[in-house]
Amino acid sequence: MGLRLLACLFHLPTAVIYGSLSLFVSILHNVFLLYYVDTFVSVYKIDKLSFWIGETVFLIWNSLNDPLFGWLSDRVFLSTQQPGAEISSPEVVLKRLRALSHNGPLFAISFLAFWVAWAHPGLQFLLCLCMYDSFLTMVDLHHNALLADLAVSAKDRTSLNFYCSLFSAIGSLSVFMSYAVWNKENFFSFRIFCVVLAFCSVVGFTLSTQLLRQRFEADGKAKWDQESTLKELYIEKLSVPQEKRITLAEYLQQLSRHRNFLWFVCMNLVQVFHCHFNSNFFPLFLEHLLSDQISVSTGSFLLGVSYIAPHLNNLYFLSLCRRCGVYAVVRGLFFLKLALSVVMLLAGPDQVYLLCIFIASNRVFTEGTCKLLNLVVTDLVDEDLVLNRRKQAASALLFGMVALVTKPGQTFAPLIGTWLLCAYTGYDIFQRNPLSNVVSAQPKLESAAALEPTLRQGCFYLLVFVPITCALLQLLSWSQFSLHGKRLQMVKAQRQSLTQGRAPEVKMI
Length: 509
Known about the structure:
This protein is mostly helical. It has 17 helices and no strands. Helix 2 runs antiparallel to helix 5 and helix 5 packs across helix 14 (395-406). The protein is globular and about 65 Å long. The chain starts with a helix and ends in a 9-residue tail after the last helix. The relative contact order is 0.13. The model is unreliable at 81-87, 227-241, 432-448 and 502-509 (pLDDT under 50).
């Protein structure tokens, strides 16, 4: 039985094994996002100053570590090497897999550091956040970079992304299982649950990366044998100067001339802002727009759907991408976001069922769009390689540079959202009466009762005008993005010729 299982694992398609890596990230990361703040605030009793210091340092480190790790990983690929000395594609893939095999288990171990008190709460909060985010960034960078390194055609890349979405949806089930063991008064069961999740993640990372490494080590050995056979026939060029390695300043200058990269990060900055705006204000919208209209179980259902549905919805979007192209699907989602928001604005805040559908679909479609954009980044990796005549694609570095420009959207979302709400209604989310969230039979205070209609109207306008504004800005920037259609086909054809057409010159007999 065990041998048969191993045989099945060895014969799994590469796309399935690649997608399974998303499962071993998502089972941990979803639990982390849901519980880490509550754990430190309610269980470890962290003070407010230490909490904000930790979050501020984390925001800075979170923005800087993507390009830093990308540069450390891919700077060797930026140099133009002599013919016959370039790094082969199997070697690049093996480099990524070695990084994943080391950082994946360390990521799982750093996840466990949150759930046991081992230092002063403020110090532990800061160290755990930075350590966890560092290993998560390394895993995400190399996993996303493999999407560009394993395949060039849009069909193959959508297939890889399909399995990532499928396994991410399965990984989201850990959130529902966690509800059964979460207890702030008795933390033991939850800690055991987290240890089991981390153990599954470590085993999964080790097994998946080992299976992929065996496949590509065989490919690399075959290429090495072929080059050894042709070595005697290779014509050495007498005076080929080896170009100097490109510096970070020169690379940034190249990116500043990459027109499609600039338009993409402008669009993606707005997208990241909108994704985190929905996440930050989802509970607020439920509380002030729907709390009197729907049951608690319906609200919990909407929250659960908003976690899982984007992954499942993405499976359909990826099938559309195969037929219509990523550019057309993303543009269609922007138009859909604009149309739904205008319809909701015209309908008003009193249409309860329409409001439920809009709040859920707004988050689902926005998150779904975010998950498609990795395919666009892989196309930008191809264009960067062709435009700058690189010997090898610096995919992890480009993913890191995209994150550097777009991650500030995570910080802008709560800041701009709370400012708009306060400016329109006078409602300060940080100074509200904590007892206002408690359901009670007592009548509300006059000031609270007077504020409620204005607050409800303000939440509704925030709910509809933010997506309308985001959609218009994104359609403007996306219309300037030219890497689609014939240009994209030309870039992919040139990358194929650059990466596959570098056979050594052979003497004419």
